[in-house]
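Morning. Coffee machine broken again, so started the prediction first thing and wrote up yesterday's gels while waiting. Chain of 147 residues, entered below exactly as on the submission form.
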Amino acid sequence: MSSPGYAPPLVLEIGPSRWLAAALAGLYGAAVTALMAVALPPLLQVAAASGLLLSLRREWHLHVRRSGPEALTALAWTADGLRVRTRAGTWRHAEQLPGGLVTPALVVLPLRLPEERFTRRHRGLVLTADATPKRAHRRLRMRLLNP
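Came back before lunch.
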């Protein structure tokens, strides 16, 4: 593929994902079940299970429903670079970090926003095939696999 400066702009609108909802519910359910099977004091089990449920709630709003104010709802990759839009409607420049995962069903894109540049904080953009238009999802995968 041509270099990103010559590649056509790519804009993805990101919606909710049923696949990710099912995966998170199953994984968190298995984690809580495993936690209850471990011989721990009941108070510690309840505290750990509460922590897991709070984590599930956060991830659900950020990645499944995309309803939290910091949830990423769109991605634009143009000659000017990579930008993401939050649920609040603000577009921010983003830096793609090394790593991630690209498969036909799932793309995990590690990103750093400008305000996070001098910290170790970064965020992962989790995109399942059912959360984006099919053609745009394919174009994103091709762009990531052929930089």
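The beta strands are 10-13, 72-78, 81-86, 91-96, 101-102, 106-112, 123-128. Going to sketch it on the whiteboard this afternoon.
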